[in-house]
Design brief:
two-stranded antiparallel sheet, single chain, 14% strand, three-stranded antiparallel β-sheet
Length: 255
């Protein structure tokens, strides 16, 4: 029974798949409404991926002057969600012992808001693409769906502007808190006599900088998409028939 039922089940699944794919209008991807949604989907992945996967390293070297001139290398790893106050490192005190210190600052709020917005943008763009491609007739005939799409698109554009600006400011604070000079200033041993402290590894912040750039590009995409979504709403549909009447009335007035 199981062997005879398996081909029937697979055939039914294939027929269902063919029926679903047969109704997909891939040509809508070439239209502004569908093409921009694809870009929004891609840049949302780039934005939250670049920010959420970031990790960096800062460091310093401490040389205790004396007969042995012991040198200790300090390496501190940090990354998303940038709760720097939870990241600890060991500082030599030049007496044969080590003290535990922490980085300074908590920049998790703008980083997590940025990543969360990217995830929700990714999900909404994917759902909207499915609606545009498969249920295009429902989208064009239903008056509420284009209006809801316009409102959501407008909200995403606003939130992307806020998130990109906030994360840009947060990233500049992260850079200031994790540069080697800040690490040296936070270590008391470096202010004592007979101790030489030098800057170590400088964090590479290229991926984090790219995430901010992707955030502002996402804002431009969502803001520009508002215009194309607006064309699908009832407001533009009602305004279109009045244009010929206005032109005809203007011609009569001229006569």
């Amino acid at each position: 029974m199981s062997e005879s039922g398996t081909p029937a089940t697979s055939d039914k699944a294939l027929r269902l798949q063919d029926r679903v794919l047969a109704g997909v209008r891939w040509g809508r991807l070439l239209e502004p409404l569908g093409f921009i949604k694809v870009l929004e989907w891609l840049f949302a992945i780039f934005a939250f991926g670049a920010c959420g996967s970031f990790s960096g390293e800062t460091g310093a070297t401490v040389v205790c002057e004396g007969d042995t001139k012991d040198m200790s290398a300090i390496a501190v790893h940090f990354g998303y969600p940038f709760r720097l106050y939870q990241i600890s490192f060991s500082m030599p005190d030049c007496l044969g012992e080590f003290q535990t210190l922490h980085l300074v600052g908590d920049f998790s709020a703008p980083a997590e808001f940025f990543v969360t917005l990217g995830v929700f943008s990714f999900l909404y763009a994917m759902v909207a693409l499915g609606l545009y491609l498969r249920f295009h007739s429902l989208y064009s005939q239903n008056k509420k769906l284009p209006f809801a799409d316009f409102c959501v698109t407008l909200c995403f554009a606003f939130f992307w502007l806020v998130a990109a600006a906030a994360w840009g400011k947060g990233l500049s604070d992260v850079k200031a808190a994790t540069r080697p000079s800040s690490l040296l200033a936070a270590m008391p041993v470096c202010h004592g006599p007979d101790v030489t402290c030098n800057a170590g590894t400088t964090p590479a912040m290229g991926l984090a900088n790219i995430s901010v750039l992707f955030g502002f590009i996402s804002f431009l995409l969502w803001a520009g998409n508002c215009w194309f979504v607006l064309q699908e709403t009832q407001w533009r549909a009602q305004a279109a028939p009045r244009d010929p009447e206005a032109a005809e009335q203007g011609a009569i007035d001229k006569q």
